[in-house]
Amino acid sequence: MHEVSLCRALAGSVTRASRGRRVEAVHVDVGQLRQIVPDAMAHAWVFVVRNTSLDGAELHLNPIPAVLACDDCGAEIELGPELGFACHACGSASTHVASGEEFTLTAIDVSEDLGAVKGEP
Ligand SMILES: [Zn+2]
């Protein structure tokens, strides 16, 4: 289940970036070509961060459409599951994926209030 390994890697990045502050939310750009199922990702996140310093942090996924760019005519076409990788404007096979492969941590919401930790030490 690749969502779990993605979440483990993400949790590691977030933990380093938060430097001990309490993390309230994590924002990630996810390209459609990554084949990530949002529900599976949400469940994997809760599983991975349980009983860690990130427990309770919300995961926000920002879907990025898959876009194919033509090297010959410059057209940009949004990729659907039924479409190939040839340009739909000129038929050229010289195309590249302009977006849709992202898995990028874009922002972390942290609580600056370190005194809000509940319970006895
Ligand atoms: Zn073209």
How much of the sequence lies in strands comes to 25-35%
Examine the secondary-structure arrangement and name the CATH architecture: 2-Layer Sandwich
Summarize the biggest pleated sheet: 3 strands, mixed
Give the overall silhouette. Answer: elongated
Please tell me the total number of domains: 1
What oligomeric state do these chains adopt? single chain
Q: Which secondary structure elements does this structure contain, and how are they paired or packed?
A:
Blueprint lengths: L1 H17 L3 E10 L6 H12 L8 E7 L2 E4 L5 E3 L16 E5 L3 E9 L10
Parallel strand pairs: 1-2
Antiparallel strand pairs: 1-6, 3-4, 3-5
The chain binds zinc ion.
Q: How would you concisely characterize the structure shown here?
A:
The protein has 121 residues and is α+β, with helices and mostly antiparallel strands.
Description:
The chain has a single domain (2-111), classed as 2-Layer Sandwich (hypothetical protein PF0899 fold). It contains two helices and six strands. The chain has helices spanning 2-18, 38-49; strands at 22-31, 58-64, 67-70, 76-78, 95-99, 103-111. A three-stranded mixed beta sheet has the order 2-1-6, with helices on one face. It binds zinc ion. Zinc ion is lined by residues 70, 72-73, 75, 87, 89-90, 92. Residues 70, 72-73, 75, 87, 89-90, 92 line the site of zinc ion (ZN).
List keywords for this structure.
single chain, 121 residues, alpha+beta, hypothetical protein PF0899 fold, three-stranded mixed beta sheet, three-stranded antiparallel beta sheet, 2 helices, 6 strands, 24% helix, elongated, disordered C terminus, binds zinc ion
